[in-house]
Prior knowledge:
Structural class: alpha+beta
Largest sheet: 7 strands, antiparallel
Shape: elongated
Order of helices and strands: HHHHEEEEHEEEHH
Amino acid sequence: MTDEAQNPAPLKAPDVAQVLKVNRLVLARLMAVRLLITVVLVAGAVALSRMTESDSVFLTLPIVAGVFVFVATVHRLIYGIRVTQCARALRDYPMEFHPRVIKKRERWTQYGNVYEVRVTTRGQHGAPLMLAVNAAGRRRWPEGVTESGAWLAGDLPFGGVLVVPGSNAMLFLKPADWEKTARKREEAGAERTARAERAKLNKRTQWAVMMRSSA
């Protein structure tokens, strides 16, 4: 057996700048498509009304739909702040590879699908159950996470970011039960707590939908 087979090359962590660039582009494209739909609906209805010289109520329906899409887009864009949250964590934490990420379940919300996941670490037990949302607004579960693992930047009792190898998909994480993990945060020590404060992970995140008090 060769030395390479006995000692496989260490995995190379994703480039942080590239990860953020990819996710910002995905979010921008999502918003652009929604805005384009709004323009098509409103402009199409106005043009058709002028061409037919009709004031039919049915011609107002696309305008109403377009306004609804626009409002939903603006509302969804507010939650694009998750990309900024992830950027802070990626700035303050090194990425560590975790070979096993288990998706327990998921639920639909108007701001994105929320996943319950467990990020396991070799030699450690009792990994907290985490809530995860796609930072760029996509609803589907990133391919390859369950089979190949993912890179984690963060501290699980506080939260962090999962980056999927290859696709650079980015999931923002927070403990599923913030109160239940309070003792682990209290026992984290000054250095870990200070790092979490710099990354703004030390408090329940108000701008991520799955961290609302009603969730």
